[in-house]
Amino acid sequence: MKKIVIVLLFFSLAWSVYLQQERINLLETNLSQLQNTLAQLPSMPTSITFTEDQDGVANLLPNVLEGVVGLRVEAIVRQQTWFGERNVQSVGTGSGFFVSNDGYLVTNAHVVENAFQNEQSTITVVLFDGSSYIGSIVKYDRNLDLAVVKINAEVSSLNFASQMRLGETVFAIGYPLGFDLSLSITKGIISGLNRDLGNSVPLIQTDAAINPGNSGGPLFNMRGEVIGVNSSKIASSVVEGIGFAIMGEIVTEFIEDAIN
């Protein structure tokens, strides 16, 4: 009986050793396969390299930045105060861009509104290089929200696009919140065409950021052509990325009438 128990114990031990060896062999095989797989993977870079200017905006900027300007409008306006109606100093800022080489530029009417038919006002036009000129209003239309201003200088003007497409990539340049953030650039797409906000003026809808101070600045396509004049946005805690620009064909008609 003892011999049988010893034999069974021997075979049990041998079987355990065999199973353990099989597990070791399996682990070694799996490890070898993993090493082969890792050897075939491309090596990880030691640093991340970004491809500069994939969408072409940076390449376009040298051709368009000189055509964009900032406007500072100072005027004395009548306002109701705690002490009754009084003359109050008003200072506003906005954007614009040159449409001819002899100093004509376009902006929004609401940017220069306080200077319209106001002798106690000054429109200062600040160029790309920091130089500034005094401007005068040539034409003003509150309904279209467009104005043409003239300075006495030779400048670089921008060209208008002949067509645009829904979904096309666009970018805006302007002076949001004044001159501290001068010539800021934002990018998006054309989200809609021929939008009407109630004044029968066809607008381009875009998700490129349009902020106070961007008003009057250009909205560009990816050929560096102006497709519209940035004018407004819907500001709400439940709305994001809905800005508007006056369509280029409306702007060019207005400019031609003003200059000619």
Compact summary:
This protein has 260 residues and is of the alpha+beta class. The chain has helices spanning 2-40, 57-64, 109-112, 248-259, and strands spanning 68-81, 84-98, 104-107, 121-126, 132-141, 146-150, 169-174, 184-195, 203-206, 218-221, 226-233, 243-247.
Instruction: State the helicity in percent bands.
Output: 10-25%
CATH class categorisation of the domain at 169-259: Mainly Beta
Q: Give average pLDDT, whole number.
A: 83
Shape: elongated
Low-confidence stretches: 43-53
CATH architecture title of the domain at 169-259: Beta Barrel
The fourth-level CATH homologous superfamily of the domain at 169-259 is Trypsin-like serine proteases
Major sheet summary line: 6 strands, antiparallel, barrel
Name the beta content range.
Answer: 35-45%
CATH domain topology of the domain at 169-259 = Thrombin, subunit H
The first-to-last residue Cα distance is 124 Å
Following the backbone from N to C, one meets helices and strands in this order, namely HHEEEHEEEEEEEEEH
For the secondary structure, the number of strands is 12
Instruction: Tell me the strand order in the biggest sheet.
Output: 1-2-3-6-5-4
Structural class: alpha+beta
As a whole number of angstroms, the C-alpha radius of gyration is: 33 Å
Q: In DSSP terms, counting alpha (H) and pi (I) runs of 4 or more, how many helices?
A: 4
